[in-house]
């Protein structure tokens, strides 16, 4: 793979958790990169400056992209199209990406209003995050060992995916997957959005149990083990951002929720009617099925690589 073009100056439009983490990771790997950040939040801007993640801060997106040879829009999905329209005339031929968690609405807006403004455009989605929000929660190692989705919206004869692939690999990501917008949203519904809903639902159940006060010694915060800790960690993610994400991907998410409810009903029936042996057999069956699918995927990948 060819190395990505040198990034002397990087503009990050939105220096909250993700934007500031990208800046921190870039500084860790390429300390000579000049990074200019913008945000409507002066608090995030000040924190990013104080921690050395960015070199300059402005609340003006157009000012932030001046002199940049790479631009990342790290804002919520609903604001991406307006930001791209705002900076379009200032970034001709410069690699631009966003990191939206939902792609189809952004893609539809892009095709309708921005197609003529960008000769090429590849959206990104690094699979990383934390339950904290804002630049204060940023980490330089946030992308280490993570995968990134690359979603081409408009591509020239020589697609820019490889250029962005090397960028994300340089921040510590282990690899990339190039998919179309709809497939991205279907996948993310299963591997990210649905797990968040499940986590919120478990937290709601715990809250209701605590509120009823019918268990004298119930204190789940002190009594929880690793399983509950893992399952409820993401339930404290930013409510505004996640409300937007879940609503934006509601078509695929509702379908997956319906499928999950049917599966949970089957488990309820199995536990209610089954013996210990039958329940164990169901658990083993699910585990074995997973292992079989992993072996098949590994075999198919090996055959694909051989060709």
TrEMBL record:
InterPro entries: 6-PGluconate_DH-like_C_sf, NAD(P)-bd_dom_sf, PDH_C, PDH_N, Preph/Arog_dehydrog, Prephen_DH. It comes from Leptospirillum ferrooxidans (strain C2-3). GO terms for molecular function: NAD+ binding; prephenate dehydrogenase (NAD+) activity; prephenate dehydrogenase (NADP+) activity. It comes from the Bacteria. Residues 8-301 form the Prephenate/arogenate dehydrogenase domain. GO terms for biological process: tyrosine biosynthetic process. Keywords: Oxidoreductase. The lineage of its organism: Bacteria, Pseudomonadati, Nitrospirota, Nitrospiria, Nitrospirales. Residues 282-307 are annotated as: Disordered. This is Putative prephenate dehydrogenase. It holds the Pfam family PDH_N.
